Amino acid sequence: MSHYVVTGGAGFIGSAIVRKLLEEGASRVVVVDNLLTGQQRNLEEIRSRIEFQRADIRNYEEIAPLIRGAKVVFHEAAIPSVPRSIDDPVPSHEVNANGTFNVLRAAKEGQAGRVVYAASSSAYGDTDVLPKVESMTPQPKSPYALQKLMGEYYASIFSSVYGLETVSLRYFNVYGPRQDPSSAYSGVLSLFMTAVLDRKAPTIFGDGEHSRDFTFVEDVAELNLKAARAKGVSGNMYNGGNGGRITLNQAWALLQKLEGVTIPPIYGPPRAGDVRDSQADTTLAVRDLGHAPRYGFEEGLRITLQWYRTHR
Ligand code: UD1
After folding, report:
1. pLDDT given at position 1
2. What is the pTM of this model?
């Protein structure tokens, strides 16, 4: 087994994993991306050190030869966004559900060493208790949440039935450099950060008191590499969060403070499919994977703000 595959490797999270693999000395990294939401520029300075394959996970024949014999497949390719999956459910189902099945099937047929799967905290839905623990019954509230949960279940079944090594990581609202702020479906912090730099008011859906466990992308990339190496974890799912909880009002207040501006947000109606609060219990990931998030919220925001300031 010779190479690493990162599906969605030209995306925001995928490209951070690619960089981390190179940093840790990986000699062959294959990026599989159809450039639907991924961008070549996310790989700019490392382009000569990787193999880029423009391929679509919806097409099994296209991806199977690329995955065959891989040491680890990091499966990040997805159409993210809860509201996007509500407005346009067909593509998100085809990529997130069918595409994930294709990746797992290709890994199994091609005898890949392991698949580390990008699952989502949205699978929890609204729970009575915080933080959210892996043992809680999932209560998906949107097509996106259900599709991501299905991938997790499939990963576990591929482990128990076919002996494929899999680990699923439920991400909790990842943010950081290279997150694309250009769509209405973009992650809220990317929208907030570009708004504060442009001195514009952001829209907050609801009263702003809903909360998220915002997790810095570097910590997520690090966790992926740990999940690739950990022993005795096949078929399991882990929270990949930071463990904290920040309301949208707090996030906007901090950004205004960092920029030294006062811009009242515009409050709009709550968004369909939205989860009210989200916070990870990290106990299991710390114990089994050695998860050790290093970036506090303010530090992560500062780094990311600086990135948007210089790269837009
Ligand atoms: C969800 C998942 C997350 C997943 C992501 C993929 C949960 C808890 N999290 O994120 O794991 O990676 O989908 O896209 O389900 N908002 C505003 N104004 C805006 C944009 C968003 O107020 O302009 C609000 C939303 O209503 C929401 C929060 O900000 O309450 C976060 O939204 P978003 O960044 O889209 O992510 P989630 O839907 O929470």
Report:
1. 57
2. 0.98
Structural domain that includes position 125? 4-175+216-241+280-294
Residue 224: inside a domain: yes
Relative orientation angle of helices 248-259 and 297-311, to the nearest 10 degrees: 60
**Which letter does DSSP use for residue 264 in this model?**
P
Q: What is the pLDDT of residue 2?
A: 82
157 burial level (CB within 10 Å; 0-12, 13-18, 19+): middle
Cα–Cα dist 136/295, whole Å? 26
Closest Cα to residue 144, out of 166, 174, 115, 124?
124
Give the CA distances from residue 288 to residues 6, 234, 292, in Å, rounded to whole numbers and listed in that order: 23, 11, 11
Evaluate whether residue 39 is within a structural domain: yes
Residue 56 belongs to some domain of the structure: yes
Fill in the amino acid letter for 165: E
Distance 188 CA to ligand 1 centre (A): 6
pLDDT confidence of residue 153: 98
- DSSP string of 22-33, one letter each residue: HHTT-S-EEEEE
- Residues within a 6 A CB radius of ligand 1: 80-82, 120-122, 171-173, 187-188, 191, 202-205, 210, 212, 248, 271, 274-275, 278
Q: From the first residue on, what is the mean pLDDT of each consecutive set of 10 residues in the chain (312 residues)?
A: 93 98 97 97 98 98 98 98 97 98 99 98 97 98 98 98 98 98 96 98 98 98 98 98 98 98 98 96 98 98 98 88
Helix H or strand E segment including 13: helix 12-23
Which residue, chain included where needed, has tokens 């207040």? 253
Residue 98 maps to a domain = yes
Task: Copy the structure tokens of residue 214.
Answer: 């915002």
**Distance separating alpha carbons of residues 233 and 168, to the nearest angstrom:** 10
Question: Count of domains in the chain?
Answer: 1
CATH number of the domain where residue 24 is located? 3.40.50.720
**87 CA from centroid of ligand 1 (Å):** 15
Distances (CA, A) of 153 to 68, 107, 233, 266: 22, 16, 15, 39
